[in-house]
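User: I'm preparing a small set of examples for a lab meeting where we compare how different chains pack in three dimensions. I only have the primary sequence for this one, and I'd like the structure in token form so I can line it up with the others. Please keep the answer compact; I'll paste it straight into my notes.
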Amino acid sequence: MTDLLDYADRMWRGEANARAYHSGTLRAEGLHELADGVWMWPAFGNVYAFPTADGLLCYDTGGAQTAAELFAAVRARTDVPLHTAIYSHGHIDHVFGMAAFDAEATSRGRPRPNVVAHRDVEPRFRRYQATLGYNTVINQRQFQSPGFRWPAEYRFPDTTYAESATLRIGDLDVHLRHWRGETDDATVAWFPDRGILCCGDFFIWACPNPGNPQKVQRYALEWARALRWMASLGAELLLPGHGLPVVGADRVRTALTDAADLLTTLHDQTVEAMNAGATLDEVIHGVTAPAELLRKPYLRPSYDEPEFIVRNVWRFYGGWYDGDPASLKPARRGELAGELAALSGGSARLASRARELLAAGEHRLAGHLAQLAVDADDRDADAHAARAEVFTALEKAATSTMAKGVYAWAAAESRAVLAGDDLDAQLRAHTEGRLRWAI
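Assistant: Understood. Below is the structure token output for the 439-residue chain.
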């Protein structure tokens, strides 16, 4: 079995990458013992298990795709009943592993396990049910997963709390603390007697992700404050929602503080520019992230990226108006594109110029003109060909999952038009063999 702590040490030193973690091979090995009485199941959404005299405690339960594997992995290690499960937050890669444990309890005449979560998990699930179609679309696009359907049924928590709570399970004391960060319903679990901190998605071995362009409001400043509070605890073992453990008080403190520093500088620069009267365009292109932080193995912009975080800080304080009076009540995109096409010589000229800009390395401008060409004439095959070329190049150049998903979706839309095919087929062909699904 892979030595996860050795792997984590090499990751920290920059001597290994996350390929083995994301491939699923570690998950297939079952539960990994990190220390006496601490097990990790390294799925995409990690699960942590703590055996006690009263039964098993789990922090998070993983996603629906791997629920059966989780149950099998736990039962291969122990027959101790699941006593309590804590949801770190309500995202679906963390809350869908309960069904088999519930069924087992019912079949053996025991009460179902107690699911504990922050009180805002329940309204999150209700919102998910109300926006089922929208969440299907945005997650298909973000993760290039055309067959995905957003779930309609959820395992609601049995016990909820507001700001903090303490659980006593067997001889294990667990202190729960609510913070807002990626979500408004997050729970951090601190085991003071063990020096263990389960932080959920506040730390994921990547640039923090309070900037997702397709999801609801996220909370960069509160995220930073949560990280600093966690850094003050003196934890010896940090167990993240995604990625490998961080071992040793110095490393834990450094990782959490560095992530907090990155968020704080992005937040503060954005607010300073807003206070000076800057437009969103000026803020996006004026705020910079410290390069030395982005070079850290645990802060690389592989999922979210600083520019998106800046946009979400703007949205938090400034709403949706971007400072451009023409965008306050805009014309239809197609009407504007048609006017620009008429001025420039038609959609073909816009498509041609998009290709020229792409060849010159002006990816952002190329993206604008390629999109305008299709908006001006959505039946123009050459415009769609240019759009597919440009956004395929933008996808390859992008570093973050979020950007890659949007660009790949746009390219696939145009390839589908050109092929007279459906979008799903184009996306399946494009993503075949890739790691495609995550939340």
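A couple of notes for your slides: The chain has two domains: 4-263, 331-431. The longest strand covers residues 172-179.

User: Perfect, thanks.
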